[in-house]
Amino acid sequence: MTYQPPCTISPPVERLLGRICEMVGRLSVSAQGEHLRLRRINRIRTIQGSLAIEGNTLSEEQITAIMDGRRVVAPPREIQEARNAIEVYDRLEQRDPYRETDLLAAHEIMMRSLMDAPGRYRTGGVGVMGRKEVIHVAPPAGRVPILMRDLFDWLNRGERHPLVASSIFHYEFEFIHPFADGNGRMGRLWQTLILARWNSIFAITPVESMVHARQQEYYEAIGQSTNMNDSAPFVEFMLEVIRETLGDMGSDQAADQVSDQVQRLLRLVDQEFVTVTEMMTGVGLSHRPTFRKNYLRPALDAGLLEMKYPENPKHPRQRYRLTSKGRSMKALLGEQ
Fold this sequence. Notes:
Oligomer: single chain
CATH superfamily of the largest domain: Fido-like domain
Order of helices and strands: HHHHHEEHHHHHHHHHEEH
CATH architecture of the largest domain: Orthogonal Bundle
Number of domains: 2
Helix content: 55-70%
CATH topology of the largest domain: Fic-like fold
Largest sheet: 2 strands, antiparallel
Strand content: under 5%
Strand order of the largest sheet: 1-2
CATH class of the largest domain: Mainly Alpha
C-alpha cells in the first residue's frame, strides 16, 4: 500500500486556503517587478528567524553584515550557522523540493562544519526535548530511509494542494527527525521550497520569521498533531502563519511604493491640521511648486493626507492632516 499521511481537512483549513490563494494572486501581480530591497530584507528576516528558533542569537543587523562580508563579533558557531544558511537560501531556486537527493545536499550545506556527516541520515536514536522532559522519541534510525522515501513518494503524487502538502511534509519531517541535527531549520526550509515551486512569491516570503514570533505555538501544534496522530492542527497553524506573513508583505510592498518624499512628509504630519508653510519648513523646502509636486500632491492622491476644507482646495486657511490610511502607513514606516 502507498503511504498516506493522516490529515483531516477542517472548515478553518478550507477557509484559510481560499484566503491565502486570493492573497497570493494579488501579491504575485504586484511583485512582478519585485523591489530588490524588499527581497533582501525578507531573506534576512527568513534566515534570522529560522536560526533564532534553534537558539542562534544573531540579530538581523549581524546577519546583514555577514551577508555583506563584514566582520561580526559573535560566537564562531553562530556565525558558521548564518553563513551556511545564507548559502542554502541563495541557492533555493536551484533545488527541487520533490527530490530526496536535493534535501540531503541542502542539509550538507546547512550543517557544514557544525556536525559529523552532514547530508546523511542519522544512525542513532534521537528524542525531542521540551523544557524538562522528552516530548517526542523519533522512529528508529533503521526506519528513517524507508520513511523518508515514502514521504517523498507521497509528495510526488501531488494529492494535496501545495499549501497543505508543504505543511504536512513539514510536520511528517519533524516527526521522523531524519538527521542527528538541523531538523528544525531543514523542515522549515523544505516547506518554503515546496511553496516557492508552487508560486515564486514564497521565495521571498519570510514565513520562518513569523514562526519565530510564534515559536511556542509552533511546538504546541507539533505536539498536538502527534498526540492526535493527525497533522491537521499543525497544518492549520502553518496556514495561519502563512496568511499573517502574506498580510505583512502586502503592507511592506505598499510602503515600498511610497516615495521617499512622501515618507518624509508622513513622518512629519500627525492628526493635527498643519499648514503648507509648516510642512515645507519641516522637510526643509522653500520652493512651494516643488513641494506641491513631489510631496503634497502625491500624498493627497494616495489618500494619505486630507484637507480641512476639501470643498475649497484653495481656501486661504487650508490645513492638512493624516487620514486613517496615512496613520497606518506612518506606523508601518516607523517599524522599518
